[in-house]
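In this supplementary section we document a worked example of the pipeline. Step one takes a protein sequence of length 366 as its only input; no multiple sequence alignment statistics are reported here. Step two produces a three-dimensional model, which step three serialises into structure tokens for compact storage. The input and output of this example are shown verbatim.
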Amino acid sequence: MRLNAKLLATAVFFVCQSAMAAPSDDDINDKFTKLNGTIDSINGELNSQRATLSGIKSEIENSNLKLQRQVLDELKSVQRQNQYVYDAILAERESLGGKMIKPLRNYNLQTPDGKMILGQKEYVYVKEANATIDARIDTGASQSSISASDVVEFERNGKKWMRFNIVHNDRTISVEAPYVKQTRLRQSSIEGYSYRSVVKLNIKIGDYSTEAEFNLIDRTQMQFALLIGRNLLTDIAVVDVARNNVQKRADKDGLLLLSIDDYVDNKKKGIDVNQKYDELQKENSGGQIATLSKDKAQSLGTNPDKALPSVRDKIETENGSKPAIKKDPVKKTTEEKSKDVKKKKELTEKEKAALELSKNSKKSRS
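The serialised model returned by step three reads:
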């Protein structure tokens, strides 16, 4: 800075000297040339100083970020160690019959300030689809989106709704959701903008439930049918890309849609993650043909193995007694019916004989 002041004073001196003297035109031009050169050198030095200062500033900011990350990592490590020690003490105390207050927060699932920890993919339950979808967590996306094909607009209770299909894992799920707005997004792959409908869906991640807006886009050929963006992550969660499915699955027995790679791998191994779900849906579905008993007198339901007679006979067999043949007391065999008819006929003949006797006695009296 002292050098700059000296150069500036020299420039002012030259200007004053040129103003006081009455030199020729050549001298004036030479002095202006020298003055311009001096000014250019001053500007060059100022620019170099600015570059040096900006470099120092960026180095300080980077060092601060590194320091913050190191402090945060060390803090997380200490918290996990403390939790491990506390869990060990808790287990030992409970084994001895004592009681201790269990910690309310699991630092593998939550940060110290209460935010959820999410991996690069998470199980997300979507109420309108009644399915859990393995979703990609993308901090680079400003909005969340869900796979939608065959989108149809309709009206319900005077309001605009959208009906669409989620086609994934060789399944088609029909979804209906209220319309919110139409958004305009800039596409990196194409020039200009694309317009997408936005709907409101109820979702659940772990123990956290919320209502959020989702863009409708055909993700049939994409790895994940659901993408979670910053509109759902801000002030709620932090993302650890080194982990997957950190939060527990909210609907364990429901339908699960995996990413395309995971679905293909399971299919090659002969694993069907939705086998129990499909069996339960088949049993609970209506309109099936009921199984009849051998005498076609009783309906055994859609599954004869679970019908009451089979269950009853199984219980009696396990108890050591032979299942008794239980007859319907209302129904009678043909022999019993013929005996009843004969009895009725016999009664009518006796009644006839009694009438004849009464008539003969009346005649004799007369």
